[in-house]
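Here is the promised in-class demo. Please do not try to memorize the tokens; focus on the logic of going from shape to residues.
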């Protein structure tokens, strides 16, 4: 081998050795980096710097809710993400929901940013809520129906904004009524606001075992029924701290409620254990021609296929009243509160504003018949033409029952509901139930002083 070739070979192997050394070094560095990335949280540090604000929203999450959350998340993609916490409608009673939210707030948890509560709970929750007055302009608030917005205030401070409202209505079965010789006339009367006396007269013409169903369990729903009954007899029981309980007209109303079950036998005894879902299902399943409920019960209660087929016969009318008086609907609904423990208040406000916007309100109504809280839906001719049912609700809004905004309201309500329920079960007379309620309310308020 010539000297030239030897030098070239040495150079080749020398280069090969250098290349091999570089390869070994790169492999070594790669292994070290793998260990470092595996054992040290560089990735987590990066994620923690993620600018997406996560908002946890607690409510009964229906398809309507999911749709507005989906649209909001798309609209604010990369900035804000709303994560729903579902309190299933039939899984959690309203009282259970109140208990869960109360527990979260008492622990000062930031796991819930925005939560919806029954409008009557506002005074109980203000101590855990962020005041909202500074986040909303007067122009924004002026778009909201005044009595509904009023439920969001406590001591002249805005602590919530309404998400949607509910109205108490009378459901009736058109197919059953129209079988009567004077069915069309009865239906016309009902649609104009029928009376209890007319209801009793219809029973004589029908073969139905039961004529009417309501919510008689000792809870807030029973109070709504009771207030519509008394207001329909021209008694304002709901005024102040319910001091008008001891009144001959109030007693007459409660006695009538008792008689519907125990004297006329046109209401099943089971109603003393019914909330909204149970009463709705019972009435549909057993072909009861009239029953009381909120306007969108048929959208949220789980029914069998056979029961669902009967929904096409359902119609809505104003609540019943006594002869010579008028129909009144209890106004209910759920309001959005912002937890004062939230770490993402600005982002949460952005979601709350979207949820009360025209776009979101239209979604809630068209998907689930949750009644809009914006005035425009009841005043704008194009919206009334698009959603003719709104005309019915617009008429009901002229005669509503608004429950008082009292810090002790839920305690007062629980006392009355317990005693009215006892009267329905004939454990107390109507007079005893009312006087016992008054004594217990007075004693409770005295202790609170």
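The designed amino acids, position by position:
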């Amino acid at each position: 081998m010539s000297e030239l070739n030897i030098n070239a070979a040495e150079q080749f192997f020398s280069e090969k050795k250098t290349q091999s050394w570089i390869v070994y070094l790169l492999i070594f560095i790669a292994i070290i980096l793998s260990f470092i990335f595996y054992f040290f949280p560089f990735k987590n540090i990066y994620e923690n710097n993620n600018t997406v604000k996560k908002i946890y929203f607690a409510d009964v999450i229906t398809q309507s809710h999911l749709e507005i959350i989906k649209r909001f998340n798309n609209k604010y993609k990369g900035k804000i993400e709303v994560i729903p916490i579902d309190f299933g409608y039939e899984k959690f009673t309203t009282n259970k929901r109140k208990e869960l939210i109360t527990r979260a707030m008492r622990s000062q948890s930031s796991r819930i940013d925005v939560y919806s509560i029954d409008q009557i709970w506002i005074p109980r929750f203000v101590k855990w809520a962020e005041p909202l007055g500074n986040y909303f302009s007067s122009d924004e608030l002026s778009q909201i129906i005044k009595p509904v917005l009023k439920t969001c205030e406590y001591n002249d401070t805005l602590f919530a904004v309404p998400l949607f409202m509910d109205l108490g209505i009378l459901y009736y079965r058109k197919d059953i009524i129209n079988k009567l010789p004077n069915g069309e006339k009865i239906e016309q009367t009902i649609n104009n606001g029928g009376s209890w006396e007319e209801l009793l007269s219809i029973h004589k013409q029908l073969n139905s075992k039961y004529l009417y169903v309501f919510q008689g369990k000792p809870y807030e729903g029973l109070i709504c029924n009771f207030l519509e009954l008394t207001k329909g007899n021209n008694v304002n029981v709901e005024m102040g701290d319910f001091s008008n309980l001891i009144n001959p007209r109030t007693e007459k109303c409660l006695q009538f409620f008792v008689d519907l079950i125990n004297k006329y036998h046109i209401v099943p005894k089971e109603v003393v254990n019914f909330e909204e879902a149970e009463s709705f299902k019972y009435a549909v399943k057993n072909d009861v021609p009239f029953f009381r409920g909120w306007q969108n019960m048929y959208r949220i209660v789980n029914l069998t296929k056979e029961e669902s087929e009967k929904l096409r016969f359902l119609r809505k009318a104003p609540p019943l009243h006594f002869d010579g008086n008028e129909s009144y609907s209890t106004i209910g609904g759920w309001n959005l509160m912002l937890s004062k423990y939230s770490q993402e208040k600005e982002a949460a406000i952005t979601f709350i504003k979207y949820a009360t916007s025209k776009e979101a309100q239209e979604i809630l109504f068209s998907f689930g018949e949750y009644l809009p809280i914006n005035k425009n839906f009841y005043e704008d001719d194009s919206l009334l033409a698009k959603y003719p049912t709104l005309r019915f609700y617009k008429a009901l809004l002229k005669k509503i029952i608004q429950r008082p905004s009292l810090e002790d309201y839920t305690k007062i309500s629980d006392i009355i509901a317990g005693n009215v329920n006892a009267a329905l079960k004939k454990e107390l007379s109507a007079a005893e139930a009312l006087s016992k309620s008054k004594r217990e309310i007075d004693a409770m308020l005295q202790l609170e002083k």
